[in-house]
Each structure stands twice: as structure tokens, then as C-alpha cells.
Design a protein that fits this description.
15% strand; alpha/beta; 7 helices; two-stranded antiparallel ribbon; 235 residues; six-stranded mixed β-sheet
Length: 235
């Protein structure tokens, strides 16, 4: 009989919820916070950093993993440090991050946190994503039709002392159109706009944006992008 062992006391003395301490199937056991940590923020930060140590996803049921993930994103709300740094690269966690952090109907909806998750979940795979320019990029002196790694685009933009916003969109998506309009009207400078649906006609965009298409099919596996648009600042 499957069961969860629950702590009905607050793990870091501040969380108004019950926390899964251990699953009987051996998937998860909550790390023990060192007694030397007394500040609630330090406890939360330590727990976020060590939360997934020893987790065995081959043993966990969907229900157990989902509950443990919900506990995790609740804890990160009080952590003063960036979350997701040590999160495992598991597809089920990508699905849950998308469900809880990237869905407007979710009580945990937070695009900034979702951007953090994607950065850390992808890790070193991000520079390997290859794009193809669908319009000239005068800022970088690159012509339309050129294939280029995202890391090289970032390097060129940042090398000019400029910031960068990364946008994945579908031209047929109403929310994407709204996001494009908001970015354009907000005066956001260097936007790398990646079209995820090349069968559709591109919407009108500012001429200085860098427009790209996917040249690497792996991006559809690397990014949990079922709900577009996805916008990330500072890439």
C-alpha cells in the first residue's frame, strides 16, 4: 500500500503547510537541515539547494513526485537565493514546472521562476541550440538565412554592451501576439524572437528585433514550451 510520510509541522519553522518527509516507495526522503542553521531564510536556502539529493525517480509515482514538487516550489518562495540550481533534469519535473509555473490558472504561476527553472534544467545544453535567421540582423552584421548558435547570438549582443530578451512564440497564438505587442510597446531593445511554428506567417515586429527559426529539432525536447509564449530576460 502506497503512503506518504507527512510532517504536519513546518520544516523551516515558517511554512504554513504539511511537507512530505518521505515516500514509502523509496523515491524521496527530505534532507535533514543542519542544526547550525537558525535563520529561516538560511534554512529555506539550504533545503532548496539539497532538496533533490538522493531522489530516485525510477521509484516514484506521478502523484508522489507531483506532491514533492509542489512542496519544493512552496519552499522556494521564502528562499533568498536563486532556485532550481540543483534540480534534476527529469522530464516529469519539466512537465510539472510547465503546469505549475507557466500556466496562468495555477496558484503558483510565475514566469520569472519558470525562466529560472528552464535555465538551470537546460544547463550547458542551452548554447548548443542552433537557430536560423529569417531576417537580416544589422546589429550583428549577420544576413538572413545564416545558421547560428544561440550562444553566439548572445555573445555578439552582450559584446556590444546590450541586454537581451529571448522570446519563443507561435504566430498563431493570441497570447504570443499580446506578448509581442507588450515587448514592442515597452521599448524592449534586443529581442531574439524564435518562431516555433514556421508554417504560419510572422506577425509585424520591430525591425531591430532578431528573428529566428529553429534549426535544431532537439529544442522541442529541451524546452517545456507547450504553453507559448515563453519570455526570458537576461539570457
Amino acid at each position: 500500500m502506497r503512503r506518504l510520510i507527512i510532517l504536519f509541522v513546518t520544516v523551516v519553522s515558517v511554512l504554513p503547510m504539511s511537507i512530505v518527509a518521505e515516500t514509502s516507495d523509496g523515491f524521496f526522503r527530505l534532507p535533514q537541515i543542519p542544526d547550525s542553521l537558525t535563520c529561516k531564510e538560511d534554512k529555506a536556502a539550504w533545503l532548496v539547494s539539497h532538496y533533490w539529493e538522493g531522489a530516485d525517480f525510477s521509484r516514484g509515482t506521478r502523484q508522489d513526485i507531483e506532491q514533492v514538487f509542489v512542496d519544493y516550489i512552496t519552499i522556494i518562495q521564502i528562499s533568498p537565493r536563486e532556485a532550481f540550481r540543483n534540480i534534476p533534469r527529469e522530464k516529469i519535473l519539466a512537465d510539472l514546472a510547465d503546469q505549475y509555473l507557466n500556466d496562468k490558472q495555477s496558484p503558483f504561476y510565475d514566469t520569472a521562476r519558470y525562466a529560472q527553472y528552464v535555465r538551470h534544467a537546460l544547463g550547458d545544453t542551452l548554447p548548443d541550440i542552433k537557430l536560423m535567421l529569417v531576417a537580416d540582423a544589422p546589429l550583428l552584421g549577420i544576413a538572413s538565412g545564416t545558421s547560428i548558435f544561440l550562444s553566439k547570438l548572445k555573445e555578439g549582443i552582450m559584446g556590444k554592451g546590450e541586454g537581451m530578451t529571448l522570446l519563443f512564440f507561435d504566430p498563431d497564438c493570441d497570447d504570443c501576439k499580446s506578448a509581442i505587442a507588450q515587448l514592442a510597446n515597452g521599448g524592449v531593445g534586443n529581442v531574439v524572437a524564435v518562431n516555433m511554428n514556421q508554417s504560419q506567417t510572422l506577425p509585424v515586429m520591430p525591425p531591430h528585433w532578431i528573428l529566428c527559426a529553429i534549426a535544431d529539432e532537439r529544442v522541442y525536447d529541451l524546452y517545456p514550451l507547450r504553453r507559448l509564449p515563453f519570455v526570458a530576460n537576461g539570457w
